[in-house]
Amino acid sequence: MFKAEILGETLKDSIEALTIIVDEARVHLADGGIYARNADPSYVAMVEFELSVKAFEAYETDEEVITLDLKKMQDILELANRTDVVHVTIDENKMTLSFGDLKYTIALLSPYSIKKEPKVPNVESAAHVVITGKEFRWAVKAAAKVSDNIALGCVNTTFFMEAVGDADTMRLELSKDQLIDISRSDAKEEEVRSLFSLEFLIEMSKAIGKASEVSLDIGRNIPLKVGFDIADGNGTVTYLLAPRIEQE
Amino acid sequence: MFKAEILGETLKDSIEALTIIVDEARVHLADGGIYARNADPSYVAMVEFELSVKAFEAYETDEEVITLDLKKMQDILELANRTDVVHVTIDENKMTLSFGDLKYTIALLSPYSIKKEPKVPNVESAAHVVITGKEFRWAVKAAAKVSDNIALGCVNTTFFMEAVGDADTMRLELSKDQLIDISRSDAKEEEVRSLFSLEFLIEMSKAIGKASEVSLDIGRNIPLKVGFDIADGNGTVTYLLAPRIEQE
Amino acid sequence: MFKAEILGETLKDSIEALTIIVDEARVHLADGGIYARNADPSYVAMVEFELSVKAFEAYETDEEVITLDLKKMQDILELANRTDVVHVTIDENKMTLSFGDLKYTIALLSPYSIKKEPKVPNVESAAHVVITGKEFRWAVKAAAKVSDNIALGCVNTTFFMEAVGDADTMRLELSKDQLIDISRSDAKEEEVRSLFSLEFLIEMSKAIGKASEVSLDIGRNIPLKVGFDIADGNGTVTYLLAPRIEQE
After folding, report:
1. Which ipTM was obtained for this model?
2. Which of A37, B138, C177, C238 is most exposed, with the fewest beta carbons within 10 Å of its own?
3. CATH code of domain B2-113
4. Which chains touch B (3 or more CB pairs under 8 A)?
């Protein structure tokens, strides 16, 4: 049994953040709030998601683990305004979503239908960069004009995103004063870079694009860690994306 | 010979109301105005249409029955503004539509190309409900998220729309004070309901959605009657939609 | 070696004007500015293009002839604002486009990959008409409702565009006072007209539609000449379109 009230905006943003990685998500309904850790079918990308009870208008749970049909929820929530309060009840494999004059009852998925939770790899990044979600989304869009891959990296305290296609290249550079923040845990002079699939970053940038601040943890051929807040800081989303081998 | 002047808005709305049921319509050009009664090819839905001479800026007719290519008219009228006065002339199987600097001449269809006019079934409804066109369109959209069918009905003086899909359900309830009007001709306590194909209601809701008031006549497994005004009350549109058999 | 700075707006409009006729364009980078003359693969339509050095913020050239991949440039320039200054550098078969924080390097095409420049036919038109680009675009759109061809012509000092389909016709007439200008070099009473493929005019009308003034030179079954300014009068675009044989 789970019973909660949540702002349309928060619920929509939460579902979107998860749906970028998976269509069906295993979600923990715990005392302190809900959390989830899901990997995409190819294990290239992963999402860690947390939403504190503070993000809810009302919250009551028996501590369960459920499996949500995110695509169906997203489709239904298209009808909810961002300012609507959505009433969510979960009982005996049924979820009820009520808002305005509407009441939907949808089936939960079988917990056996999705893979078990992935382990989060230990990543030691060399640079920590903070930019606006808007700038991140823009750069990903710009890279897609010439390539399927994008390299993220730093030289000194300049952050760069670079796409190299068959004949064409794109490079975006943001120096320290164009960034919200940049810090390096290694020798500053050296170039750090890793290459990633644009396909996943394009998807992620849809959720990321709304965030006022996005943190990027970058190293040498290690997974990229992308973090941002939702629900006015009462929730966090962290994506991990495996690097590609860069051919020199 | 027919010669008339009509506001772009009224002509567009009239064509749209008809085109939801048929692509080609038999239309009577009578002394008091124009009227039409057409059924869709499967005879599941029907439209009755009336537009008084008061809806025209100028009107002159020899009393004819013509067959219109609605899709072509709709395509051409996309170029007319709602405030344009459209000059319509019909003579010897040719229709002329003039507005702005443009003049179109299009062929009328052969009167033998379409089926004869359907008879209007005698329907004794148990409940009469009046809601806004916007609310109706919204409910139809909400139902489409989970099913291909929608039930319309009343319990006491609460109106409901309910969609039941394979695993999921949607229910919208509007009590008496959320409706413009509701009246029952039978015992109020009993539930009345009929099931309809969403496919037709989605189409109808495009024309209905603009109406400030829509009347719904609902009974027990009988056709739904949907009525609304066009042309500032100088025209009426009535749709009849056959019910589906509801499986318990 | 070529190095220039140009307003995003001017560069976008220039590429668009050319791309309507060809995907790849041979362009001359001369001392006085850039110019190009390209025909479409079927030789039905041709564009003459000129952009004076006055249209640039900065301009430096070694006088070269290059071959541009217009579609790729257009795709990249979608990201540039109309008010951005775009830095263009061409060196050793590479073109660099920089604006905002972005820098693109794209390959030039081989000069042997496209046909040689077409000769401009000598056209003696009978009527010269000036209308707004908006009106031109509108008429082309209106003609497309009924036909694949459009006739442009004059009767006395009335300009007309006429489309004749299988069963339907469209006619737009603009008298002298509805036109910006009209002048005739032949006997005014006679009708002049030529028939053209709408396919090309629809494409052209995308670039033409933005121009405040468009000049049309029309004769009897001779090519149509369409001229308009870009870059605040510091550039000109002229399209030539071969006529179709009109069947009486």
Report:
1. 0.89
2. C177
3. 3.70.10.10
4. A, C
pLDDT score for B177? 94
Q: Find which of B132, B134, B138, B145 to mutate to test the A interface (most A CBs within 10 Å of its CB).
A: B145
Cα-based distances in Å from B227 to B70, B130, C59, C63, C173: 21, 9, 68, 73, 41
Q: Are B56 and B21 in contact (CB under 8 A)?
A: no
How far is it, in rounded angstroms, from Cα B162 to Cα B165? Answer: 10
Number of B/C CB contacts below 8 angstroms equals 33
Residue-range domain boundaries for chain C = 2-111, 127-241
Amino acid A248: pLDDT:
59
Interface with C, mutate which of B95, B105, B110 (most C CBs under 10 A)? B105
CB contact under 8 A, B146 and A79: no
In angstroms, the separation between the Cα of residue B215 and the nearest Cα of chain A is 19
Taking the C-alpha atoms of residue C183 and residue A104, their distance in angstroms, rounded to an integer, is 68
pLDDT, tens digit (0-9, with 9 covering 90-100), for C121-161: 888 899 999 999 999 999 999 999 999 999 999 999 999 99
| Domain B127-241 fold | Proliferating Cell Nuclear Antigen (3.70.10)
Dmax over CA atoms of chain B, in Å, equals 60
We find that the CATH architecture of domain C2-111 is: Box (3.70)
Q: From B130, B127, B217, B228, select the one nearest B180 (Cα to Cα).
A: B130
pLDDT band of A222, cuts 50, 70, 90:
very high
> What is the pTM for the complete model shown?
0.90
Which pLDDT tens digit goes with each residue over A150-203?
999 999 999 999 999 888 999 999 999 999 999 998 877 789 999 999 999 999
- The answer, yes or no, to whether residue B248 has pLDDT greater than 70, is no
A-chain CB neighbours of C105 within 8 Å are 168-170
pLDDT band at residue C82 using 50, 70 and 90 as cut-offs: very high
Instruction: Pick A172's closest partner by Cβ from C72, C75, C101.
Output: C101
pLDDT band at B61 (very low <50, low <70, confident <90, very high): very high
Which of A168, A170, A173 has its CB closest to that of C107? A168
Q: Do domains B2-113 and B127-241 have the same CATH topology?
A: yes
Q: Does residue B126 contact residue B192 with C-beta atoms inside 8 Å?
A: yes
Chain C interface mutation, best of A138, A145, A177, highest count of C Cβ atoms under 10 Å? A145
Which residues lie below 8 Å from residue B75, measured CB to CB, with a gap of 6+?
C145
